[in-house]
Amino acid sequence: MDSTNWVFVDKEMNIISEEYEDVQPFNEGYAAVKKNNLWGYIDTTFQVKISYKYDQCSSFKNGLASFEIRGGKSLIIEGYINKKGEVVWQKEYSNWQ
């Protein structure tokens, strides 16, 4: 295991997940995890439920999580997704420098 990566462990300190670059705590049954510089979501069985595609994201609260996707230097998409990974609201910013 790379010393800069994160894993989940059980009460006996046995590794019970794969390695992640970063993690957020579980909330509402999902945790945001980062692999290959992108964020996605796993459930409590460590199965990927929402694929790795976000540059930034938050934990779920009241069934929604915020996200940000950067498309180069001139496009940012911000919004909210539900637990199915469906976008429920988004705003695009282009050429905002």
Biggest sheet features: 4 strands, antiparallel
Radius of gyration: 15 Å
SS-based class: mainly beta
Overall pLDDT: 94
Name the beta content range: over 45%
Number of helices: 0
Distance between the termini: 40 Å
Unreliably modeled segments: none
Q: How would you spell out the order of helices and strands?
A: EEEEEEEE
Helical content stands at under 10%
What is the global morphology? globular
Number of strands: 8
User: Going across the major beta sheet, what is the strand order?
Assistant: 1-2-3-4
Features:
97 residues; mainly beta; four-stranded antiparallel β-sheet
Give an overview in words.
The chain has 97 residues and is mainly β. Helix content is 0%, strand content 45%. It has no helices and eight strands. Strand 6 (65-70) and strand 7 (75-81) form a beta hairpin. The protein is globular and about 50 Å long. The termini are far apart.
SSE inventory with pairings:
Elements: E1 22-23, E2 30-35, E3 38-43, E4 48-54, E5 56-57, E6 65-70, E7 75-81, E8 87-94
Antiparallel strand pairs: 1-2, 2-3, 3-4, 5-6, 6-7, 7-8
